[in-house]
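hey so u asked for the seq, here:
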Amino acid sequence: MAEAVVVEAPAKVNLYLGVGPRRGDGYHDLTTVFQTVELSDRVTIEPAESLEFECDVDLGIADSENLAVRAALAFAAVCGRHPAVRVSLRKQIPAGAGLAGGSSDAAAVIAGLAEMWEMDTSDAHLRTTAAALGSDVPFFLSGGTSLYTGRGDEFAARVPFVPLDIVLVYVGVPVATQEAYSAFDSFPHTPTPGPEALVAACASGDPARVAATLYNNMTDASVGLVAGIAETLAWCQREKGVLGAAMAGSGSAVFAVCASAESAEEVAVHASRRGWWSCATKAIERGVTLGLEEAS
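ran it, C-alpha cells below
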C-alpha cells in the first residue's frame, strides 16, 4: 500500500496590517504580523497516474485556477518531477474572507509533495515556489506569529507567541483581493503607526494588550465594497467577553480576541444566530502540519 500524505492547512489572521502606496511594479509595500489559527483545511496527497484534483465544495473556479493545483504543477516543475498525484481538498476555511485558505492549501501541497518525494523540507525550492504563488504562501510553511515585510512575502522576525482565544465572523460576502487594493488606492494615504506597539504587546504576553493594538488600514477600503464588514466589526466589539476586533486581511471576515475560550464560543453562537458564519478558534504556533496515513 502506498502512503498518502495528509496535511493540515491552517487559516491566518493579521494582528497588524499596514499597507503602503502602490509601487511601480503594481504591488504594495506592506508590513504585517501574521498569526495562524486552529481552523484548518485538510489536504491529502496520494500517488496517481497523473495529476488529479478534487474538492468537497464548489469554489466557483476551474480546477486549473485553484492554488493547490497550481502549487503541485509549480513545485513539480521546479523539482523536475511529474506530478503523478491525487490532491484531495477538504475545506473548512471560507473563501474570499481574508483568512488565506487558498494560500495555506498551496503551502500544504508544497510541503506534502516534499514529504512524499523525500526532499529536504528546508530546501530553498519550497520557499521559492511558495513566493511565486502568492505573497502570503511562504508564511504558512512555518506559521505561528511572524512579522513579514516586502509585499508580504519577506520574513522579518518571529514575534512572541500569545495563546489567544479568537472568534471568526464572516458575513458571507467575499472580497476580491484585487478589488480591495484598487479601492485602497482611491483613499488618501496616511502614515501607519508601525507594528512596534503590537509586537511589544505580544512580548508582554497579555491578550488584552494585544487586542488593544490590533490594526488594519485596509478596513475602510473593504467596507466600501462590503458594508457588512462594518456591521460585523461593530457587533463583535460590543459583544461580552471581546477584548478587541479587527478585519482579517483584506476582508471580509472579522476576528475578535476574546477573554476566554468560553467567551469565544458564546460569541460564535450569537453570530450564528444572526445568520453569519462563525467559528471559535485559537492562535497556534505552527503552520502547515504533516502526517502520514495508508492510502486506500
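The two ends are 8 Å apart (CA to CA). The longest strand covers residues 3-22.
lmk if thats what u needed
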